Amino acid sequence: MEEVPDHLDHGLQIVFIGFNPSIRSGELGHHYANPRNNFWRILHQSGLTPRLYEASEDGELLKLGYGFTNIVARPTVGAEDITREEYAAGRELLRTKLALYRPEIACFVGKGVYTEFSRRTKAQWGFQQEAPVVDGVREFVAPSSSGLVRMPMQEIVDIYRRLYDFTHEGI
Asked: How distant is the alpha carbon of residue 91 from its chain centre?
C-alpha cells in the first residue's frame, strides 16, 4: 500500500503529527480519511479551520499554514502494528523534517505519538513545558482524533481550541 504523502513547507504555523495512516488513508492517499476519525470535525469546531474540510482537501490546508506528517509512514490497521524499528527510524526522520521545515508548533495528535517521538514517559494536554526535541519548535499534545477515543468530543475540541487561541492572539 502506498504511503500517504506529507504536506510540509517552510513557514507553517502548525504541523499535525499522527502515529501513522489508517488503511483507509493509505487507500485514498489522504490524511485522516477514515470516516470514523473526527479530525476534520475537530479542526472546524475548534475554530482552526473556517469550514469543515474533507480528507481529500488535506493539501489545501497548507494555505492556512497547516501541514501533515506521521511518525511512521506505513499505513496499518492500528498503532499496535507499528514495529520498534519503524518507530526508531520514524523518530529520526520526524526530527529531521521538523528541523528542516521549522514549523512554529508541532501538534502531536495523541499522547502516544508525542511520547514515542520525545522518548518522555509523560505528557499533559497542550503545550509541553520541557525543552523541545527540536529547538525553536513548540510542542503541543492534543488528544487522538480516532473515533475509538473515549474522551467526550467537546473536551477534545476544547484542547484543540487552545491551539486556535494561541495562534490567533492579537489578531
From this structure: 14
As a whole number of Å, the end-to-end CA separation of the chain is: 43
What pLDDT, in 10s, does the model give residues 25-37? 999 999 999 999 9
The DSSP result for 69-124, as a single string, is EES--S-BSSGGG--HHHHHHHHHHHHHHHHHH--SEEEEESHHHHHHHH--S---
Mean pLDDT, the chain, as a whole number?
94
Compute the distance between CA of residue 13 and CA of residue 155 in angstroms, rounded to an integer.
23
Tell me the domains of the chain and their CATH numbers. 14-98+110-167 (3.40.470.10)
Q: For residue 125, how many other CB atoms are within 10 A of its CB?
A: 17
Q: Which three cell numbers stand for residue 136?
A: 525553536
Residue in the structure block whose three cell numbers are 475509538: 148
